[in-house]
Design a protein that fits this description.
By secondary structure, this protein is mainly β. It is 4% helix and 37% strand.
Length: 419
């Protein structure tokens, strides 16, 4: 495992990804991974199709019934499966409807269970839940090598729209470290919230899905968003770094009313597991939402009892997902509405664990020079350049020149944890 360069952001100019422009009419749908293999979920475990670690798949989920997929796992790696469900834009969903994902051993014993719901906005959007098989000292269930099953079902089928939902599935494996490190989560970390970045927002259109997420670094970014649309961004976050983010929605200029939980912001980790989410209603006046303070990325975070801290367990690309509820259009029109995303990275980059093998897909738990180069850094009007760096000589050899140190302004408040 390479040594990470402390507190560095590479300031480069990156091309905007295609396919993210907002066109007139209905908002774009979810952008599935190109080349994802189409598979059918089985109605019973015995017929389940195998999910290969490192691969991405497309499938579908009917209103009623459970769909099964299969994993073949060793006894030395943690395994993560993410399932993103995409309902039809015209379907009516309830707050508690969504998907439930569980991982089971060959005997039907539960290894993990997770669910994702649409929430109070009742707005159809992509929802993502994850399954986990974790190797842990002292545990007896789900520790053996062999066959495991991923079960996917709707959370509230009796109230769910009748049509099938498209699914995007990924499988990731994480080897054990070569050396045993801390087995308790860090207790002391800076839980203050820094002042949001100021500066002139730079246009950075959001992507339409996880696989097409737009790379961004620290900075102030803007785009347009329509009611019912979901935008995806990804931020390279190294070991030891802290991520802060806020999303702001501009005023409508016309209309009146109130849209419940209209502006939604979520953070997902490199295996697409949800870290935190938050939402705020909209009255036509500017509104903003922000992530709770999160600990620096650390392998030992997996031992935390708090779910948010536990999800900050590896370096890599963290995903910011922004959704504007469809019902905003009822009172305030089809838009588009101005969206501003403020992203700040704190802490100091550190070296991560030396894994005993290769994760699948390779490189998923690291931040490469290419990742940094793809994620531009914005201009800060308040003078906080936040450890910008330029590449010198051959970036292929990893030679970087540090240009500055960031100064953080923080308010002393502790963010409440959520399991």
């Amino acid at each position: 495992m390479r040594w990470a360069v402390g507190a560095v952001v590479l300031a480069v100019t990156a091309a905007l990804p295609g396919g993210a422009a907002v066109a007139a009419g209905a908002p774009p749908g979810y952008a599935f991974a190109e080349g994802a293999r189409r598979i059918e979920g089985a109605s019973g475990a015995s017929d389940a199709v195998r999910l290969e670690p490192g691969a991405t798949y497309r499938s579908s989920l009917p209103r009623a019934g459970t769909r099964y997929y299969r994993l073949e796992l060793d006894a030395a790696s943690d395994a993560y499966v993410s399932v993103t469900a995409v309902p039809g834009a015209d379907g009516e969903v309830t707050a508690i409807d969504g998907i439930r994902v569980s991982v089971q051993d060959a005997d039907g014993g539960s290894c993990s269970s997770d669910s994702a719901t649409f929430g109070a906005a009742h707005s159809p959007r992509p929802v993502t839940a994850r399954g986990l098989r974790e190797i842990a000292s002292g545990e007896t269930r789900c520790q053996d090598p062999g066959t495991y099953y991923v079960a996917v079902e709707r959370s509230r089928p009796q109230d769910s729209p009748p049509g099938a939902w498209d699914l995007e599935l990924t499988a990731v494996t994480e080897p054990r470290p070569e050396r045993t490190g801390a087995t308790t989560a860090p207790e002391a970390w800076d839980s203050a919230s820094p002042q949001p970045l100021t500066g002139e927002p730079q246009r950075r259109p959001g992507g339409g899905g996880f696989a097409h997420a737009t790379p961004v670094g620290q900075g102030v970014w803007r785009d347009d968003i329509r009611p019912g649309q979901t935008l995806f961004y990804k931020v390279p976050v190294d070991w030891g770094r802290q991520l802060y983010a806020t999303a702001e929605l501009g005023g409508s200029g016309a209309g009146s009313g109130y849209a419940t939980s209209a502006l939604y912001l979520a953070l997902h980790n490199p295996v697409r597991g949800e870290v935190d989410d938050t939402a705020r209603g909209y009255t036509g006046r500017p509104a903003s939402v922000g992530l709770a303070p999160l600990p620096p990325v650390s392998y030992a975070n997996r031992y935390a009892t708090d779910g948010q801290a536990g999800a900050m367990r590896f370096a890599g690309s963290y995903y910011l997902v922004v959704h504007l509820a469809a019902q905003v259009a009822d009172d305030f029109g089809e838009g588009p509405f101005g969206l501003t995303l403020r992203v700040r990275l704190g802490g100091t980059a550190q070296s991560g664990p030396e894994y005993a093998g290769e994760p699948e897909p390779k490189g998923v738990f690291e931040v490469s020079a290419q990742d940094r180069a793809a994620a531009p850094v914005g201009d800060d009007a308040d003078g906080d350049l936040a450890m910008k760096a330029v590449a010198v000589g051959g970036i292929g050899t990893g030679s970087l020149l540090l240009l500055g140190l960031g100064v953080w302004t923080a308010a002393a408040r502790r963010g409440p944890g959520r399991a």
